[in-house]
């Protein structure tokens, strides 16, 4: 009887908690469950991220240039965040915005759309097991795409979670160790190396590889 009462009491407490959740809190928990499935025990900084709620967006829609809004009209903007994009050739760092809609991801420079990735064509999302904020968005090897997108994000757990949930492609996210390969374009590939060091750095080394410290 005692065991049965314990189970009934626990079910009642869980029911009371669930019924008391706001819509915003429910979304937060759903996102954190996805983040846990991807990163728990795999990437440094995950435990510290648990207490930090995800924001709906880092920038508002009216923070975007009107020309960009006109170019993506008809799509509902779900999330916008500042990022650093690294060129595929030379790895020069450039300030950009990552705009996620209900159907595509856009890399935006001021009033220009530099690259559009439709979620239906997205091949993968890669990040390292270290505490850096590098995210590589893998795209198809075709004439429509310039190559994979190399980004550095301040809120890496939030960005990857939002992206894979909107694309409905949680299974394509990989947390890699040591290095990863990315497509430069026209069938060519590059290598990115991850290593630990006293201070964070991202640079092109003597061998031509992108090194992330």
TrEMBL record:
InterPro entries: Myosin_TH1. It comes from the Eukaryota. GO terms for molecular function: cytoskeletal motor activity. PROSITE patterns: TH1. Residues 43-213 form the TH1 domain. GO terms for cellular component: myosin complex. Pfam families: Myosin_TH1. This is MYO1H protein. The gene is Myo1h.
């Amino acid at each position: 009887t005692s065991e049965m009462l314990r189970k009934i009491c626990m079910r009642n407490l869980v029911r009371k908690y669930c019924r008391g959740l706001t819509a915003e809190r429910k979304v937060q928990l759903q996102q954190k469950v996805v983040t846990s499935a991807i990163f728990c025990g795999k990437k440094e900084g995950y435990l510290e991220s648990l207490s930090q709620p995800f924001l709906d967006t880092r920038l508002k829609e009216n923070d975007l240039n009107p020309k960009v809004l006109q170019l993506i009209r008809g799509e509902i903007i779900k999330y916008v965040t500042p990022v650093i994009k690294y060129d595929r050739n030379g790895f020069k760092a450039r300030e950009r915005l990552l705009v996620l809609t209900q159907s595509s991801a856009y890399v935006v420079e001021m009033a220009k759309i530099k690259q559009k990735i439709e979620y239906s064509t997205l091949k993968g999302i890669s990040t390292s097991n270290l505490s850096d904020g590098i995210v590589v968005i893998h795209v198809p090897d075709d004439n429509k795409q310039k190559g994979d997108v190399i980004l550095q994000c301040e809120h890496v757990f939030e960005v990857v979670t939002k992206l894979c949930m909107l694309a409905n492609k949680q299974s394509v996210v990989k947390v890699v160790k040591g290095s990863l390969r990315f497509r430069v374009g026209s069938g060519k590939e590059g290598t990115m190396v991850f290593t630990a060091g006293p201070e964070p750095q991202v640079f092109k080394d003597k061998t031509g590889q992108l090194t992330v410290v």
